[in-house]
């Protein structure tokens, strides 16, 4: 999915997080957002996914500004997203996948790769933080999204789990992936970088 | 008929989480038991008029609904599951699924309230058909508007207080019609003489469900 940021400004009260931001992200690009804490990486990630409206400027997704359309093709993992504690891993994925009109079996197709195959019947609320994040990654892949947004701050993965990020980014070559991170070892994952702050 | 399938999935998911957590049902039942028991003990041997009985019945239903029905959306917001749901499910399906869950909870509450009233504040001879119709249609009206209002207040920081404050004026026509229908039923009035109240409840619920389906995508996506 192609994303065009046109003269984007984001303010929270009197504080301007970023302004005059112009950038075109071509389809299939892997973009890594870097910058110190508070520089607006997570905010920009949500603006790019149509989850936040910028104070000024426009975001175009393949020449459209329709946010509800982009959400249908969006995979997102961020700190403000969680799944149902009272449902199992498989129940969560099957519930969200049911809206896609795709074969039910494909809901859990990534569980093995994400190291969750033996936890599919565990309640989401009983999982450790790292396993919850892996379940959220499986959720983000449910729609086979054209745009995948990953907020590293929320991932909380162990060293083994961190190896999943390159795997995720390489899973679908035409998918646009945007990763917000503070970890210098992940700066090289992107074909493009954007430093904020 | 995709919207119906999607609404059914939301309802099944909510029923499953409700059965495992019992947050809304527990609140509704506890409120009904405590309030009817307290009223029964404070009134003691005083005989209640049918007008007071009808008003008491709907006061209990209204406040129990206010205590429990907002949970369907507020819990999604507080736990952070609303974003996952927003990214996956169409707004109209979410509204219908939550509406059906709230309606189911209200029907359970209705049955419990009738049993408690019969034990603690006996209803005497009444027109059961009219009584059940009034209660059933009133519950549909209550669920239709409180589901929409719950979705709006879930976006704010003062959810609990705001829900009742916003819901009361919106629900007032349905409450007045519900109380009038219940009073006539307790007076053993024939069904034909209460068609005005029942028509008002049907119209109210119809308008609220239509308005909610038209507006819900805006409430849900912003």
From TrEMBL, chain A:
GO molecular function: ATP binding; ATP hydrolysis activity
InterPro entries membership: AAA+_ATPase, ABC_transporter-like_ATP-bd, ABC_Transporter_VariousFunc, P-loop_NTPase
The species this protein was found in: Eiseniibacteriota bacterium
UniProtKB keywords: ATP-binding, Nucleotide-binding, Transport
Residue ranges annotated for the ABC transporter domain, each copy included: 3-192
PROSITE patterns membership: ABC_TRANSPORTER_2 (PS50893)
Taxonomic superkingdom: Bacteria
Protein name: ABC transporter ATP-binding protein
Gene3D superfamilies (UniProt xref): P-loop containing nucleotide triphosphate hydrolases
PANTHER family, A to Z: ABC TRANSPORTER ATP-BINDING PROTEIN ALBC-RELATED (PTHR42939:SF1)
Pfam families linked to this entry: ABC_tran (PF00005)
TrEMBL record, chain B:
Domain of life: Bacteria
Biological process annotations from GO: cytochrome c biosynthetic process; cytochrome complex assembly
Locations listed in the record: Membrane
UniProtKB keywords: Cytochrome c-type biogenesis, Membrane, Transmembrane, Transmembrane helix, Transport
GO CC, any one term: plasma membrane
PANTHER family xrefs: CYTOCHROME C BIOGENESIS B-RELATED, HEME EXPORTER PROTEIN B
Name used for this protein in its record: ABC transporter permease
Organism: Eiseniibacteriota bacterium
Lineage: Bacteria, Candidatus Eiseniibacteriota
